[in-house]
Structures
1.
Amino acid sequence: MYYSTIKKYDIADGPGVRVTLFVSGCTNGCEGCFQPETWDFRYGQPYTKETQQELLQALSPAYIQGLTLLGGEPFEPENQRELVTLLRAVRAACPEKDIWCYTGFTFDRELAPGGRKYCEVTDEMLGLLDILVDGRFVLARRNLMLRFRGSENQRIIDVGKSLAQGAVVLSEWNEQPPSRQQNPAAPEN
C-alpha cells in the first residue's frame, strides 16, 4: 500500500484534533474529487512498519481525539488488507481514541458480504471503526453546509450500532447544523 499524506493535527475530517492518513489508490474516479492524484495506487510513499509507528506516536497525546482514514480509497481490497493491521494496533495502543473512515463505497451494498469491494478482512475492518462516512462524492449534490462530508448523498454511519442491528444506523454527526442565516430566536411574521 502507498499513502499520499499524514496530517498530525487535522480538524476537518472528524471531531476534535485528529491524525489523518490519506491512502493511495481509488477506482471510483468521482467528478470533482479534491485530490485525484491519489487515484493512482502507487502515488506517494510506500506504507511501512515505520509509517505505522509514526501514526501510533502521533495518536499518543491526550489532545488527539482519534484517527481518520481517507484517500484515495481505504476500502479498496488491497488497502483494506494493510489498514486492518493498523486498526488493530490503534485499538490496542489507544483504545480511548475513535476511528473514522471515509469511503466512496456503500456500507450496506458494496462493503456487505457479496459486495464488489467485500474481501476477507472487510468485516474485521468495519468492526474496528466507530464512524464510516460512505458514498461517492457527487458534485451535483455538493453542499458546503454539511459537517464532515461533501455531498448530500453521503452518510455518517455509526458502525457499531449498524453492525449490532444489521441495518444502517446514522450517527448523530449526520444531523446538519442550523444555517448561519437562520435565527431560531427570531419571531415569525
Note: Residues 77-93 form the longest helix (17 residues).
2.
Amino acid sequence: MSVVGKQMTRSPSLDKENANKILGKRRYDHDGSIWDDKPMGKNGTPNQALRIKISGAINDSGYSYGKAAKMYGVSKSYAYKWGRIGCARNALNTRFRDVCKADIAFRSLSNRPNRIREWVDEDTKGRIMDLRIRFPFMGSAKIRASLGISHACSTIDRILRNSGLLKPGKSRRKDKTYGSFERDSSFDMVQIDYKSWKNGVHTMFVLDDSSRAILGYSVSDRQSADETISLLRDTFEFWRIRPRQILSDHGTEFYSVRGGKGRSKLSQWCREMDIELIHGRVRHPQTQGKIERSHRSAVEEISHFGPINTLNMFRDTMSKWVEFYNMDRPHQALGYDVPMNVLLERMERNDLDSFLEV
C-alpha cells in the first residue's frame, strides 16, 4: 500500500546538534530488545518495522503526527517519538547517517540496568549494623574505612536505610562553594577554643591544624586566660614541640577587649615563647572551622563513651573519647585515615630542631 497524501508545511529541519541529542545512543550499533518483534498497530506489524513506516509517512510523505497515528492504529505520542527520531536521523550528514542506519535508529534500547546492585553477605551486613548501633554518628564512608571493606557507600547506606538505622540527611547548597585551608606540616599552627556545656562544664581543645589531632584538652568548671596558658604549657611540654602559630577567636580568654591586640595575658605569654598569636575574624567561626567541628563531634559522640553527670565523670569520658578520636575514628578530611597517623607522618615535614626546647 503506497502512502499518498497532501504535502504539509512542517516545522523547520533539525540541525546536527539537536539531531544528535534526540538520537542519543541510537547513533551507534546496539542489539535492540525483544520489543522490536512485538506485533503493534492495526495489522500487527512488528514494532521496529512499524516505526520505520510511521517515520516515512511523517518525514517523507508529509503526514501529520495525528494522521499517521490514526492510519497505523497507534497513539499520537508513539507517532511523535518515532517521527522525530526519523527526522533527526535525516538531519545528520552522509557519513553519520550511514553509521546510524535505519534499522539501528529504530531499534529499542535495552532496559538492562548499567549497574547491578552490589551483593553483600549476611555477615558483612551484621558487622555494618553492629558498628552503626555502637557508633550512630558514623556515616557509610567511615564505616567502610573502619571495617576495611570495599563495598560502595551507597550500598552501605541502603543496608542502613533498610534496617532503619539511617535518617535522611541535610543536603548541601548547590550554589555555595565549600573549601578549607590547612597547614602542610604538623605543629605549624594549632587552634584553640572553649566549648561550654549545659551542665556548667567548659572544655578546651588544642587542635593541630594540619592533622586535626587533639594535642591537649581540659575539662573544668571555669574558663580563663590562666587555664588557657596552663593547658598550652602542659601540651607543649608533653609533645616537646612549640608551634609557630596559635589561632583563636576574640574570646576574653584570648584577646584583651579593653587593651586591644597584644595586651592580653595569652599574648604576652606567646611573645615570651616566641609564638605568633593570630585571631580569626570577628563573628566568623568558619575561620576556626576545624576546632568548631571537633566540638560538634564531641557533643554528638561523647555520650556513647560514658556518663557526664559530674565533673570527674566528664573527665573520664572525655579521655576515652579523645583517645577514640585520635586513634580509631576515621576522618573524612584526611582520606579516612585517623588523625594520629597523619600527625606523626606530617611531623617529619617540619624542621623541629628549634622547637624541641619548650
Note: Residues 298 and 321 are 8 Å apart (CA to CA).
3.
Amino acid sequence: MRILISPLDWGLGHASRSAAVVKHLLAHHNEVLLAGSGDSLQLLQSEFPHLPTVNLSSFSPWVPSWLPLPLAITLQLPYFFFCILREHMALRRVVREHNIDMVISDNRYGLYSSSCPTAIITHQLSPIPWTSCPALIRHVVSWGIARLLSKFNFCIVPDFPDHRLAGSLSTASCRVKSRLFYVGPLSRYAEYKVKNAPLDIYSLHIITGPRKTRREYESSLNAPLTQPLTTHDAPSVLIGGIDNNNPNYNCYPNASAPEIAHFIQRAQHVYSHSGYTTIMDLYILNALDRAVLTPTKGQAEQVYLASLLAEKTMPDAQ
C-alpha cells in the first residue's frame, strides 16, 4: 500500500510519535509518503531521508504569553476551521496526484477523504478537564471533537484501554463513529531500549514544544540552581536547544533518535515539559520515575498530565 503520513506542525511531539508509525509501516513493506510543514516535517525528513515528501501546511496557533491557551484557541476558531477546510481540499489533490491508498494523520482534522481510508492519531478524545469550565461548554466541545473524529474511518489512540497515561483525555465523552483502536504508547525510541544502562549522566534537559517555548525554557537554565556541572562530577546534557550557549551543559541541538534514547536511559534526573509524547517516550524507556516534568505555561493539558502523573505510580514498560 502507498500510505501518506502527516503530523500536525505544533512542536515536535506529533512528528516524533508519527515516526514510530512510519517505522512500523516500512517494516511491513508499505510505501510511505511524508506530508507536512515546518519543524515537524524536518524531523521526519531527518529520520527518513530516503522517503518522498510533499508540503502540506497545517494549523499553527498563535499563543501569546499574556493570554491563556484555551482563550487564545477559542479566539482562533474561525481560522482553525478554515485550516481544516484548506487541508481537506489540498489532500484531494495529493491523493489524486500520488495515488494514495490510505492516509494517516496526527491531530490533523482536515485529512479525511472519500477517495481512500483515513485514520487519525490522537489521545484527545475529550476536552481538557478545566475545573472552572461550565459543564455545558465542555459538552459542546466534546460533541465537536466527536464530530471531527467521526469523519475518519479509524481513530488510533496512543494509550492503553484503561487510559493509564492520558487519563480522561483518551476517554470519549461523546460517541465517535470511527473505529477506535487503543494501541498503547507510541515512541520512536522503542527500538533503542536497553537493559541495565549505567546512570552516568547527572541530569538531562529535554527541550520540547514550539520554538518560542523552547527558547524560554533554554533561557531559564541560566539560573544558578540549574548549573549542575559546578557541583557534580557527572556530566549534564541539554538536547533540543536553540541557542545552546550554556557552558554548564553538553549541548546536542540536533541529537538523533538513538542518541536521545541513549541519554534518557543513562540520566539520573530527566527534566522536561509534561507533553504527552514526552510522557510516552519516558514510559517506554522506563524513565518516568526519574523525571521531573513541568507544564508549559498556559497549556492546560500539560498541567493536567503533570498532576495525573504525580498521583500515579507507573509500572515499568515491558
Note: The chain has a mean pLDDT of 86.
